[in-house]
Amino acid sequence: MVLSTAVALWSTRLRRRPLWLPLALSSWSYQLLASSAVVAAFHPSTCLLQNNHGRIQGYVIAPPFCGSSYHRYFRLYSSTGTGTESSHNDIPTGGSSAVLSQKPVPTDASVLQMLSFYHFEDIQDPLQARNSLFESINHIPGLRGTFYVAREGINAQLAVPPGEPLHTLLESCSTSLPFDPFANQTPNLGDVVSIDTPTFDRLVVRVRDYILRDGISHEIAASLNWSDAGPELSPSEWHDQVQKDKVVLIDCRNLYESEQGTFDGAIPLGTATFQESWDKLERVTADFPKDAPVHIFCTGGIRCVKVGAYMKQHLKFSDVRRLEHGIIGYEKFLEEHPEMGTSTFQGDNFLFDKRRFEEKKDSDAHQ
């Protein structure tokens, strides 16, 4: 039985103007949550609300059975492996002074290279860094996606035509920021997709309080150095080490991600959000020897920076090892090196973007 009702929505993203939204309720379950906007929990085929760091990014309050007049106000905010919001002209942004954005510069390219990267290093003036970065990249044809700039560093999830546009993007990031994000690491290159594939609507450079909100207490956070998070293992090294007996392997993602797929023998933290990780870590590792090698992984690597630093510096584990570029990098490596054998990651890699859950491409290998 379909029940029609109306819900008043009061939202800072919509300039605090109450909107009335007719909702038809049948087998759907709506749970209203307080964020910068009211958020609803929909059937998973209709929307995704949290990014891959466990933070609510956006909302869809206009399901398919609502009229199109509501869709201009309510739109899915989406992200790749490390957490991105898409923008839209019809959605007032609230704190827009912290945001620079534009539609993609027209391009003749037929494909886009998906990529992400992050770098933790102090930025004294995030607004100035945002301005410099935006000015250096806003001419690149076809570039779209989101940069987050904060005092603690930068985080980006992007799509750009391969070749010269990609080269220009990486060079511009290296020269326009207060640091070179690629001095000690390479960007995480994902799929090459058709330019018609839904990825990102705009190029957005946004200032935030954190590039990865963690929920760590101020006292503990003040004592942590993100550059001391344990060594990164290449996908090849990781592949060899995790197949050994008695390997301690911790899945630093949220439970809904772990349930879709994980490495053989991994211990899931079982969190609903990344902010819950710290109590869970202490319980999960309570009986581990402090000198035991601990292998940690997440979707793209960024969460493991903070988890690794917390384990080394606060929990006093001496041997913490991280998977370089996370699951995304591991699976791409095995695709490019079939001689390495079968992947030890079983299931699907849960990605928050408009494209898809990452699907198995064949039945005999890399997921």
TrEMBL record:
> Rhodanese domain: which residues?
243-332
- Which SMART domains does this one have? RHOD
InterPro entries, per the entry: Rhodanese-like_dom, TRHO_N
Q: What is this protein called?
A: Rhodanese domain containing protein
